[in-house]
Amino acid sequence: QSIFRGRHFINLEDFTKEEVDTILEVSLDLKKKFAMGEPTPYLLHQSMFLMFFEQSTRTRNSMEAGFAQLGGHAGFLDSSSMQISHGESAKDTAIILSRFGHAIACRYCNWGYGNKYLNEMAKWSSKPVMNLQCDLYHPFQALADLMTMKEKIGDLKRVKISIIWAYAESHKKPISVPVSQVLLFPRYGMDVTLAHPKGWELPDWVIAQAKENAAKYGGSVKVTDNEAEAYAGAHIVIPKNWGNWVNDQTGLAAAGAVAVVDDKLKAHKGWKCTEAKMVAADKNVMYMHALPADRNNEVEDSVIDGPHSIVYDEAENRLHTAKAVMTLLMGGR
Ligand code: CP
């Protein structure tokens, strides 16, 4: 049997570098076939369940569209309309859904609960459980980021990448995106700088694991509270901010976003990606962002819409990487 078939996809650390490479190769193959209009019915007549506790644009739709393109049917489940609202356990939910279909995917970012919930489902599900983002990890995002960087640059050894944000464990906010990135990128020999204001440190175990990965694969990991140091000479920057997040066009506040309610957050409003800061980076620097981006507080339009931005290519690769993971976990022999 294929080494992928039937496995859970909770954290990329559960996959060797060679396995991650294979996922990327399959992603690229599926991307080419998609571009050529070639059918890819690898999961014909299979069903899966997409359970969301939080909102999503990219993750939900890359999975839903991707699974349809592989010949299957994905059922969207809003956790608030399930019996979870009446206290049904992860165990019972996982056992039942895995008897109905071929995989379960779930997003649950609630701090202190999300990853535990995913692991509990994985323990009881008889079919693969995929992590669509929890409080600790967002493996699909990090994978799409990696694919995009490899497409643009090729060999990533000694490429300086600056992840300019983090939520501290003590803030009880999901830290899944920077954690997945800071763990994965050193495995590709990248020089990772994690920059954030003092008091916003990722947990020690994350940095320790990232440094171990760097030592094994020839990358490096540096943590700083100096934003300028992160931009200086960077080949890739991934900046975020901690500001209030209200969309100008809809007037809606982002669910789960951090409102600027206390002075600690207000103090860091200056951590915004601007053209002026980008000048200090490499002349071919690439701007990345998992999206959704806060165009008021996180980044200037001229950067995210400018020539250095690759955010839409990055988002598109969510589709191709999602399809590769589903194909490998649910298909094959
Ligand atoms: N990047 C990401 O996960 O986007 P969504 O929240 O829209 O799924």
TrEMBL record:
Top-level division of the source organism's lineage: Bacteria
Keywords noted in UniProt: Transferase
Listed SUPFAM superfamilies: Aspartate/ornithine carbamoyltransferase
MF (Gene Ontology): amino acid binding; ornithine carbamoyltransferase activity
GO BP field: citrulline biosynthetic process; L-arginine biosynthetic process via ornithine
Keyword presence, Manganese: no
Domain named Aspartate/ornithine carbamoyltransferase Asp/Orn-binding: residues: 177-328
Keyword field contains Glycoprotein: no
Domain Aspartate/ornithine carbamoyltransferase carbamoyl-P binding positions: 7-151
PANTHER family membership: ORNITHINE CARBAMOYLTRANSFERASE, MITOCHONDRIAL, ORNITHINE TRANSCARBAMYLASE, MITOCHONDRIAL
Family: Belongs to the aspartate/ornithine carbamoyltransferase superfamily.
Protein name: Ornithine carbamoyltransferase
